[in-house]
C-alpha cells in the first residue's frame, strides 16, 4: 500500500506509545494517525508531551491534525495498522483485542508492543487469531532500529511478511522471532550481560561506573558494527568461529563455569542502586538519544554502502 | 615523562603485538620503539605486516627506524615500558619476566597483554613483583579504547597509577580491575551474552545472522553511548535502577531462570559454526575497523563535550 494512504491507530499513550507516534509522524502526515486513550485530557496531554519526542522539541507537522478517538470503534474502524502499547496486563489486552476485532477491517494488522505477554495469550478470546503478533521495540522506538516480531503459532505467514515489509520499507530492522520465548531475544541477551555485571560489581571487581566504561569502550562500539557471532567469527581468523573456539574455547568455558548466578532479591540491590544514583543522578535522556542518533547515522550510512 | 623521551619495548609480534606497535607509533617516533622477537626474519616481517595496521595501509613514519633487538638484554636495557604480547604460556612468561628483570631499568613498567594468565602467576620467579601487571587490550588495541589493568596483590599503587596515566594521556580508557578474576571483566561480560546467543540459536529461536542483527540494532549502539547500568538507570525514570527493578525485576528474573547453560562441547558447535561460515565467509576486518573508527570518533567527540 502507498504510504500516503496508510492509516495507523495507536492505542495507549505511555512512553512507548508516544515514541511510536513520533516514529510514524516522520513518515505519515498527522491526519493518517489516530490515537486512542481513555484519559480525559488526551488533547492537551498529546500537545504537551508528544513534541518532546522530536529532535530539538519540534514536530515535523501540525499535531492538531492527529485524530484523537473517543471510542475504540471510532479509533479502529478504518485503520490498516492497529498498534497497542497499553498496560502490561493480560486481561486488559485480551479484552482489548476482542473488542478491536469487532470493529477493525478484516485485513488490519494487529500489533502489541508488549515486552512479555505472548500473542498466543493475548489472542485467546479472538475469533481470528491469525492477525495478531507482538512487535516489540527496543526503547525508544522512534530512535532504535530493532523490532522483535513474535507471532503466535496461529499468526499467518502473510501477516508476518506484511509486518516485516512495513518496517523494512521504513529503514528499520524487524527480526522474526521463531518461538514465543520468555523475554524474547534482545532482553534475554542484555539481561544475561546485566546479571554478570551485577555479579562483578557485587564481588568488588569493578564499580558500576567502571563496568559501564568497560562496555562503552569495547563491546558497545564493536557490537554496533558486528554482532557477537560475526565478531568472534572474525576473531578466529580464516578458521572462523570454529577457530575461535579451538583457540580460546577453554577460556570461554572457564568464564562460563565461574559466571555469577545472582538473583533479584539476593541483597546486592542496595549498594548497586546507590552507586548508580550517585554516579548518574538523573540521566539526560535527550542527550543520550542525540548521540545515539549520530552513531546510528554512521552505521546506516555504512550499511547503505552494502558493507555490513 | 615527556612523550618525546619515552622508550617502549614490545616483546612478541603476533596480531596483538603489531597492533600495539601501530598504536604507539601514532604517538611516538619509530626510534622510540624497540621490537623484540626471536623470529629470524623479523625485519622483513615487520616491513610487510605492520603497515596493514594503519589506515589505508600507510604508516605515519619510517618504520625502518624502529629498533629491532637481537637479544633481550639489548631490547630492554634502556626502556621505560616493556610490554609483552607473547604466547599464552605460563612457563614462557615466567622465564621472560625473570630475564627482563635482570636487564631492565629498575623503574620500567612491565605489562603483559595476556587474556588469561594473572600477573601473580607470571611474577613468581621475579625478585621485585611490584612492577608487573596485566594490561589487557580489547582487540585490536590500535583501535579499541579499553585497556583492562589487572595488577597482582603485589603490584604497587604507583605502578598502577603510572600505567593509568600513560593510557589516559593517550585518550584511552584504562580500567583498574580490583581482583584477578577468571577472564577479567570484558570477556566475562561478552561471553555471558555469547552463551545466551548460542542457546537461542541452538533452540531455533533465531539464526546466527538474525541474532547479530538484533545486537547491532539495539544493544550495540545503546551500550556505545551508555553502558548497561546507566541504560537501565535511565530506563527506571526518576527512580533510577531501583525503579527499573521495581517495574520489571520480575521479567529480568524470569529471563535469568530460563537462561541457557550450554557448554563447550555440548553438540551445538557444528550447526552454529556452519551458519557463521555460510553467513560471513571471511570477514573483512579492515572494513569493520574503518566503521568502528567512525563510531568511536563520534563518541570521543561527544565525550570531549563532557556529556557522557
From TrEMBL, chains A, B:
Residues 7-178 form the 3-hydroxyacyl-CoA dehydrogenase NAD binding domain. Keywords: Oxidoreductase. Pfam families: 3HCDH, 3HCDH_N. PROSITE patterns: 3HCDH. GO terms for biological process: fatty acid metabolic process. Residues 183-249 form the 3-hydroxyacyl-CoA dehydrogenase C-terminal domain. GO terms for molecular function: NAD+ binding; oxidoreductase activity, acting on the CH-OH group of donors, NAD or NADP as acceptor. Belongs to the 3-hydroxyacyl-CoA dehydrogenase family. This is 3-hydroxyacyl-CoA dehydrogenase NAD binding domain-containing protein.
Amino acid at each position: 500500500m502507498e504510504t500516503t494512504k496508510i492509516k495507523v491507530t495507536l492505542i495507549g499513550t505511555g512512553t512507548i506509545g508516544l515514541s511510536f507516534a513520533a516514529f510514524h509522524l516522520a513518515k505519515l502526515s498527522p491526519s493518517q494517525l489516530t490515537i486512542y486513550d481513555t484519559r480525559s485530557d488526551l488533547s492537551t496531554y498529546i500537545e504537551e508531551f508528544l513534541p518532546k519526542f522530536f529532535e530539538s522539541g519540534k514536530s515535523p507537522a501540525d499535531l492538531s491534525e492527529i485524530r484523537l478517538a473517543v471510542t475504540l470503534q471510532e479509533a479502529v474502524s478504518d485503520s490498516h495498522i492497529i498498534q497497542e502499547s497499553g498496560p502490561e496486563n493480560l486481561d486488559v489486552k485480551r479484552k482489548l483485542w476482542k473488542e478491536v476485532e469487532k470493529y477493525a477491517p478484516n485485513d488490519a494488522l494487529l500489533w502489541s508492543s508488549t515486552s512479555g505477554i505472548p500473542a498466543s495469550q493475548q489472542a485467546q478470546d479472538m475469533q481470528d487469531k491469525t492477525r495478531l503478533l507482538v512487535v516489540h521495540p527496543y526503547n525508544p522506538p522512534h530512535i532504535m532500529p530493532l523490532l522483535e516480531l513474535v507471532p503466535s503459532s496461529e499468526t499467518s505467514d502473510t501477516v508476518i511478511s506484511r509486518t516485516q515489509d512495513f518496517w523494512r520499507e521504513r529503514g528499520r530492522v524487524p527480526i522474526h522471532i521463531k518461538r514465543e520465548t520468555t523475554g524474547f531475544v534482545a532482553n534475554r541477551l542484555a539481561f544475561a550481560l546485566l546479571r554478570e555485571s551485577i555479579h562483578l560489581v557485587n564481588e568488588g571487581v569493578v564499580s558500576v561506573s567502571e563496568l559501564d566504561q568497560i562496555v562503552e569502550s569495547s563491546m558497545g562500539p564493536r557490537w554496533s558494527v558486528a554482532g557477537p557471532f560475526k565478531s568472534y567469527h572474525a576473531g578466529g581468523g580464516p578458521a572462523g568461529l570454529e577457530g575461535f573456539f579451538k583457540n580460546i574455547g577453554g577460556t570461554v568455558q572457564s568464564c562460563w563455569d565461574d559466571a555469577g548466578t545472582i538473583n533479584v532479591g539476593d541483597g546486592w540491590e542496595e549498594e548497586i542502586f546507590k552507586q548508580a544514583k550517585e554516579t548518574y543522578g538523573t540521566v539526560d535522556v535527550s542527550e543520550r538519544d542525540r548521540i545515539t542518533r549520530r552513531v546510528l547515522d554512521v552505521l546506516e550510512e555504512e550499511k547503505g554502502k552494502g558493507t555490513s
